[in-house]
Amino acid sequence: MEEHRNSFVFFLKIIIAFSILAGVSYIVYLYNQKDALNQNIPFESQTAEYCYEQQFVSEYKLMDINYRDYYTLVMNTVGNDVTGELSYMPSQKDTKTGNIQGTITKDDTSNRSIFTGTWTAYAEGDTYEENIVIVFGPSDAKVFENQDTLDKSISDFDFVTPNIILPKIDCDYVYERQKATDTFMASFDTLVSNVPELGGSFYPLLIYVDTLNDTLYCVYEDGHVQYSESFVYQYINGNIFFEKENAK
Predict the structure, then answer these.
(1) Sign of the CA dihedral 202, 242, 219, 69?
(2) Residues 66, 10 within the same domain
(3) For residue 213, what is the DSSP state?
(4) What local confidence, expressed as pLDDT, does residue 147 receive?
(5) I need a surface site. Which of 98, 154, 207, 248 has the fewest CB within 10 A?
(6) What is the structure's pLDDT at 28?
(7) Nearest-CA neighbor of 136 among 84, 211, 209?
(8) How many domains does the chain have?
(9) Residue 86's domain spans which residues?
């Protein structure tokens, strides 16, 4: 009897060992299949997104909060092709913002990529098309802008001193700020606390979104009286929900 019991235990251990081995082998197989699938994605179909931004604290203040000037770059790549947006948005001056389009080449020695293309920018009521070069990597992007529109070639760029160096940031901050602004503007008339004078209507003069404190600050007027007001919001699953603070 003891001998039969030992034999049964021995065969049971063998079955368990084979089951474990089979399970591990299957997991390895699935991992290799996934890895092979990733490796077989054509380069021209591979996508990536990069966001860079520099903020400058302005001397002007809104409700004891310093205005900020934003210089923001968003790049979307599909293989070597790039589209995106480059925006310079000072708080007290005219903005310059528009779409970029071009291609990138990889510099393997420096772990950086070089974008060459055009920036179709809108500023001061006019549209400008300029050559632009962006050298970007894991930490920052160096923007080289040709102020002479498209008259000069890429070789005419001064690659010693970039127009601006933008630190890399999480793209979600850019989306949050834009989403907060868009949502606020869509409900502007119902969110503001004041009533226009003499049958006029309000329009915003300045909007500043503080993503660290989930607050939007706005200066608006109706042509007669100017107000400053702050609005607290929640950013949930890509959506903005406003909860007004008391007008200040």
Answers:
(1) negative
(2) no
(3) T
(4) 56
(5) 248
(6) 44
(7) 84
(8) 3
(9) 47-169
